[in-house]
């Protein structure tokens, strides 16, 4: 049953956009996929939680996290088969773990935590908070951006993840990301 949270084996390079809300992750995911002529994995939580908001006017609750994790991994595993040498992921289960802990007083479902730590990626692109925050139905922490960024960065450091921090405008971020991804592709 827990297999639905596990990555399928693959030889392609996997890159994750990682960071607080409204820091340009989706925009950069799309740009990188276009640049590398590959597919990108959207953030399943956005669709899931937008539907919940539209239907019930409710935001994320703890019982939503495992269905979100399952949907995210289903998308990633499906799109891995369609990717060409690199897969760009708008998020991963480690990000879901961070949000779980940030919103639910340090709590994270043990199943989510297990797979957040077991699933592997070649590079994390940590997006900084120097992009203006944009409101939508799901974003709710404009006053806590510095704290959230520190939490995301601390999580990558705690678990020894390979990451770089992206700051600046869209062009600068894209160029830095491409530079680091190319280094991995050329190894």
Automatic annotation (TrEMBL):
NadR/Ttd14 AAA domain location: 14-173
PANTHER family found in the cross-reference section: NADR_TTD14 AAA DOMAIN-CONTAINING PROTEIN (PTHR37512:SF1), TRIFUNCTIONAL NAD BIOSYNTHESIS/REGULATOR PROTEIN NADR (PTHR37512)
Designated name of the protein: Nicotinamide-nucleotide adenylyltransferase, NadR type
Organism: Maribacter arcticus
Alphabetized InterPro entries for the sequence: NAD_biosynth-regulator (IPR052735), NadR/Ttd14_AAA_dom (IPR038727), P-loop_NTPase (IPR027417)
Keyword Nucleotidyltransferase recorded: yes
Molecular function via GO: nucleotidyltransferase activity
Pfam families: AAA_28
Top-level taxonomic group: Bacteria
Keywords: Nucleotidyltransferase, Transferase
């Amino acid at each position: 049953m827990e297999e639905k949270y596990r990555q399928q084996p693959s030889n392609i390079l996997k890159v994750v956009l990682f960071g607080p809300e409204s820091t340009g992750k989706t925009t950069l995911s799309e740009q990188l996929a276009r640049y590398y002529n590959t597919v990108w994995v959207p953030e399943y939580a956005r669709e899931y939680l937008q539907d919940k908001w539209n239907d019930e006017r409710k935001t994320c609750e703890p019982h939503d996290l495992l269905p979100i994790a399952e949907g995210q991994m289903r998308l990633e595993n499906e799109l891995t088969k369609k990717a060409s040498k690199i897969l760009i992921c708008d998020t991963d289960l480690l990000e879901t773990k961070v949000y779980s802990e940030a919103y639910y007083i340090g709590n994270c479902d043990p199943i989510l935590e297990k797979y957040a730590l077991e699933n592997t990626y070649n590079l994390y692109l940590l997006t900084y908070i120097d992009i203006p925050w944009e409101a939508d139905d799901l974003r709710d922490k404009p006053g806590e951006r510095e704290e959230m960024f520190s939490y995301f960065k601390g999580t990558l450091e705690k678990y020894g993840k390979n990451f770089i921090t992206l700051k600046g405008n869209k062009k600068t971020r894209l160029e830095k990301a491409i530079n680091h991804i190319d280094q991995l592709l050329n190894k």
